[in-house]
Design a protein that fits this description.
Layout (H helix, E strand, L loop, with lengths): L13 E4 L12 H14 L3 E4 L11 H15 L4 E5 L5 H14 L3 E5 L8 H14 L4 E5 L1 H4 L5 H7 L5 E6 L4 H11 L2 E4 L5 H6 L4 E4 L2 H16 L3 H10 L1 H6 L5 H11 L16 H13 L5
Helix pairs in contact: 1-2, 2-3, 3-4, 6-7, 9-10
Length: 299
């Protein structure tokens, strides 16, 4: 049975955008993925996002994506919302991935803005609508113009929110003003996709996080969220400020690279990266250790 959701929190509140563990020779590590997923849920996540950019989705095959969903569902699917990335810059391919995810048993879909081909806003509406029409699963939009090259305009978000299965947005736009208007006018469940802005987005109506740093600080993020929801903004702010070195350190370079390094330092499944991503240098690893320690992370 899938975890309980509400219209306000359709995918839970604290979700990790999970890395995809690989074996030493670069193959998919399904056992490692199950162990990592279990660790993350035990730490306090009530959702996991698989096959996103943090999961190295540009370099995993369609078959690997489906295998990963099935393995993680087997491990934690009765305790956490399992959302899987299906967004590409090819609408037909995204529909195929969405249908495969539904067959695999996923609880929801993450659909990123098509990247590189820079469609106009009407193209975005048709793209996201086609994905939402393709299955019976709820959809979380993913607005990250820094990667995709195209923002989802507020007016577009409002129009897309009229679709019964488009229920949420992962916001990595970095614009609290636009977020405020879009939250107020769309009614979508709003998830922070930028860890540095987790707390500020709560203040304008966000409901939770799709986090990368939660690989190493889930209990702290849960405590921050709970404090805010209980009206203790001062405590939430103190936790936010304590985590600033982690927010900074985990993104000194590409986030998957630092996340896999941090997991390895903690003895958790991660494995190597697939090119074009590369391992941290010794100097970068030393700096990561300093950043994590400054934020209270034990290695």
């Amino acid at each position: 049975m899938a975890p309980i959701s509400t219209p306000q929190t359709p995918f839970g509140r604290v979700l990790t955008a999970m890395v995809t563990p690989f074996t030493a020779d670069g193959a998919l590590d399904l056992d490692g993925a199950q162990r990592l997923a279990t660790h993350l849920v035990d730490a306090g996540n009530d959702g996991l996002v698989l096959n996103g950019t943090t999961g190295e989705s540009p370099t995993t095959s369609d078959a690997e994506k489906e295998q990963l969903v099935r393995a993680v569902l087997e491990a934690v699917g009765d305790r956490a919302h399992i959302v899987t990335g299906v967004g590409t810059n090819d609408t037909h391919h995204s529909i195929e991935l969405a249908r495969a995810a539904e067959r695999a048993g996923a609880h929801g879909l993450l659909a990123v803005t098509p990247y590189y081909n820079k469609p106009p806003q009407e193209g975005l509406i048709r793209h996201f609508t086609a994905i939402a029409d393709a299955t019976g699963l709820p959809v979380m939009l993913y607005d990250i113009p820094g990667r995709s090259g195209v923002p989802i305009d507020t007016e577009t978000i409002i129009r897309l929110a009229q679709h019964p299965r488009i229920v949420a947005n992962k916001d990595a736009k970095g614009d609290l003003g636009r977020a405020s208007w879009a939250i107020a006018q769309s009614g979508l469940a709003w998830y922070s996709g930028d860890d540095m802005l987790n707390l500020p987005l709560l203040s304008v109506g966000g409901v939770g996080f799709v986090s990368v740093v939660s690989h190493v600080v889930t209990p702290e993020l849960r405590a921050l969220l709970d404090a805010y929801l209980n009206g203790d903004v001062q405590k939430a702010t103190e936790i936010h400020q304590k985590l600033l070195p982690v927010f900074t350190g985990m993104f000194r370079t590409q986030g998957v690279i630092t996340t896999k390094a941090a997991l390895a330092l903690q003895g958790l499944p991660a494995g190597p990266l697939r090119l074009p991503l590369i391992e941290l240098t010794e100097a970068e690893t030393a700096q990561l250790k300093i950043d994590l320690a400054a934020g209270g992370v034990e290695l």
